[in-house]
Amino acid sequence: MYQAPLRELRFVLEELLDTQRLGRSEALADYSPELATSILSEAARFAEQVLDPLNQSGDREGAQWTPQGVRTPKGFREAYRQYVEGGWPALGADPEFGGQRVPEVLGTAVRELMASANLSFKLGPMLTIGAVEALSLRGSEALKARFLPKMVTGEWSGTMVLTEPQAGSDLGLIRTRAVPDGEHYRLFGQKIFITWGEHDLTDNIIHMVLARIDGAPPGTRGISMFVVPKVLVNEDGSLGARNEVRCVSIEHKLGIHASPTCTLAFGDEKGAIGYLVGEPNRGLEYMFIMMNAARLAVGLEGYALAERAYQRAVEWARTRVQGRPPVNAAAGPATIIHHPDVKRMLLTMKASVEAMRALTLYTAFQLDLSAHGQEEERAGALARAELLIPIVKGWCTEHGNRMTNLGVQIHGGMGFIEETGAAQYVRDARITTIYEGTTGIQANDLIGRKIGRDGGAAFGALIADAQRELESLASEEPSVQAIRRAALEGLGLLREAGQSVGKSLASAPEQALAVAVPFLELCGFVLGGWLMARAAALAASKVSGPESGFYAAKLRTARFYADHVLPMALAQARIVMNGAPSVTETDAALV
């Protein structure tokens, strides 16, 4: 049974990040640790009692295509009804349309709980959040009034509709056409891999579609964004006729079986009616509003599944009797948690999840500071958040995949058996490194756009701030000092690797791109180490207090991260600084 890590989340929000200072802003005046705890407690109840029990059954049954539409697994419709009644779709949305304004960092923490409990379910609302944000920022007042209120309440859902059979990540190749027809457009084309593109949970689905207006410039310069509802909406807000949007099929996938991944056909006859969002030919720009939100949301899925895999693995290790560990030889067979290697794997999972959670919530907090912080810190916070988002998306999903695999390993042969549940997390996690841009795309974005656009200024500022913090840690606890030294060593490697990548970008970009993914992972391991060192210092100062067990475990986990996980940065740094030629100098025919 899933148990929401509420104490861990409170530690990051209240102690590590000090998010309560967001309550000083006018827009977030109601925010407090008490409010956050209340919301997280309710989210935990929903995740534990409603979503988690449907995870394995939903995986076995899967979403089913029918000529009348897609049927979700048993229990999903009732779960969604409770999700709506609980007000969860409105969390973080604009109060003007019925939302409840809360910090992004709190919304991110809530989404972790839902992703851990049932990733397939969580994916649908995630896309609605992105669609609401894009429409809020770029839609006309008429479009917002027509669609946002029911999307914010969850009565209608939303999607991102980008990919076509011939145009995966290269959106400049899309062929879906938009033909002007009075005050709207008629769309013709086919889209694939549309998550929750058709389902039976809501009466309407609002598709945010990329298409090319007839006569538009070629490539990405000619892409526009359109609102295309599944069911047309009348002027009075009531539902009208069915639009020409049809689900042709759903994919048979490795994992996330309960989440329908759809092929959608637009315009079988007269064309699907769509409404232009913003200005023509700026659709890709608008889509990135949704994309950035989705990249952060997918990044957290990596460690959310790792958290769930860890919980199942540690429960198994505490009850599975097997073998005689050296420390317990006289007592006969013991539970496998006493075997040193099993303990090592469990600590690897635990420490990695804590580091990934800290980095993700730190990134979300930077988004909050960019919108609600002091005027002088907003620009820097936004630059830092944008720098960190591809790292969160790439590293947390790659490392999360490794951790779910460790969960199977801890189960031994029983982990390979579907009934234990360990294998599902491996299958479900596999998509996270691909969703919303592969790890390679995230790495190229990191070095080409986020570091390259300002000559590494935001990157350098982050390293400098981290170093100042580490050098100022005042704890006399020997473990804290050891963690601090390891984190500082990691920062030195990252600084040197960043300089190497910067030189390559200027003189031989293909060299930088050849080691972009190792550089992204290096960033993740090192920045995770910095935040774990901060956590260790906080824990050391409270280890003798009323929650001594919690803080002692926090301190030991941070030490393990410094000793066993952070050293992976050395390997990544060596690859970044020396490994490019073996890629670029190898002819494609020899691969």
Walkthrough of the structure:
The protein is an alpha+beta fold and 591 residues long. It folds into three domains: 6-150, Acyl-CoA dehydrogenase/oxidase, N-terminal domain (Butyryl-Coa Dehydrogenase, subunit A, domain 1); 156-281, Butyryl-CoA Dehydrogenase, subunit A, domain 2, CATH 2.40.110.20; 287-584, Butyryl-CoA Dehydrogenase, subunit A, domain 3, CATH 1.20.140.10. 56% of the residues lie in helices and 12% in strands. It is built from 18 helices and twelve strands. The chain has a five-stranded mixed beta barrel with strand order 4-5-12-7-6. A hairpin with a 2-residue loop joins strand 4 and strand 5 (184-195). It is globular and about 75 Å long.
Relative helix content: 55-70%
CATH superfamily annotation of the largest domain: Butyryl-CoA Dehydrogenase, subunit A, domain 3
Extended strand count = 12
Structural class: alpha+beta
CATH fold category name of the largest domain: Butyryl-CoA Dehydrogenase, subunit A, domain 3
Low-confidence segments, given as residue ranges, are: none
Strand order of the largest sheet: 4-5-12-7-6
**If you average the pLDDT, what whole number results?**
96
Largest sheet: 5 strands, mixed, barrel
Domain count:
3
Report the CATH architecture of the largest domain: Up-down Bundle
**SSE ordering:** HHEEHHHHEEEEEEEEEEHHHHHHHHHHHH
CATH class of the largest domain: Mainly Alpha
Summed up, the helix count is 18
Determine Rg (CA atoms, Å): 24 Å
Shape: globular
Strand content: 5-15%
Distance between the termini: 46 Å
